[in-house]
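TASK: fixed-backbone design
INPUT:
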């Protein structure tokens, strides 16, 4: 299970998963407060909107081929995370909620 921590902690504890969108989902952290909200607003203004736009463009491009459809769908699933990444936990899809 993945929970909280730094980006280094997240990538170190991936448990061998190939890519994050497959087999994992995100849930909102209950203890995320005002700093996460302020950070998300700053992220959206500075970097999130163009990153989301890139996911939209590459998702559409990948969906043009049969082989690329799953990867295009994975790109579309990454749009909310690219817009508001702070205050979320990455969990396996068989775990609906992050345990503490």
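OUTPUT:
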């Amino acid at each position: 299970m993945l929970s909280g921590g730094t980006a280094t902690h997240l990538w170190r504890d991936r448990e061998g998963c190939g890519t994050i969108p497959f087999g994992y989902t995100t849930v909102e952290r209950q203890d995320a407060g005002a700093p996460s909200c302020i950070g998300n607003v700053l992220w959206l203004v500075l970097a999130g909107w163009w990153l989301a736009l890139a996911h939209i463009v590459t998702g559409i491009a990948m969906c043009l081929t049969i082989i690329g459809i799953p990867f295009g769908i994975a790109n579309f699933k990454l749009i909310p995370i690219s817009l508001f990444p702070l205050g979320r936990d990455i969990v396996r899809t068989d775990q609906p909620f992050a345990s503490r």
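COMMENT: The mean pLDDT is 77.
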